[in-house]
């Protein structure tokens, strides 16, 4: 019985490799300068929209805040992905993107 219960979560999970399901972004807060890193799940965090030609595009909007608790400035990130979940565009307010 316990063996069955341990296997039960695998029946309902998405069979994607971890590197395929994640898109990581790093931002820097304009107010305090803290660097914030977050993970976008490409299979759960995206909302689908359709272009005029009927092609799907995926959108994600994240509100990030300092993890240190010293700054309450919100950093808003908007990402757009194509049907293959490749980044098309990104916008940010309240911070800047950190490459690397």
Task: Give your account of this protein's structure.
This protein is α+β, with helices and mostly antiparallel strands. Helix content is 15%, strand content 47%. The chain is built from two helices and seven strands; from the N terminus they run H-H-E-E-E-E-E-E-E. It has helices at residues 2-12, 18-21; strands at residues 22-29, 35-41, 47-50, 56-65, 74-81, 87-93, 95-97. The strands form two sheets. The chain has a four-stranded antiparallel β-sheet with strand order 3-4-5-6, with no helix packed on it. Strands 2-1-7 form a three-stranded antiparallel β-sheet. Strand 5 (74-81) and strand 6 form a beta hairpin. The radius of gyration is 17 Å and the shape is flat. The protein starts with a helix and ends with a strand. 9% of the residues are buried. The mean pLDDT is 88.
Properties at a glance:
100 residues, alpha+beta, four-stranded antiparallel beta sheet, three-stranded antiparallel beta sheet, 2 helices, 7 strands
Helix-strand blueprint:
Blueprint: H1 2-12, H2 18-21, E1 22-29, E2 35-41, E3 47-50, E4 56-65, E5 74-81, E6 87-93, E7 95-97
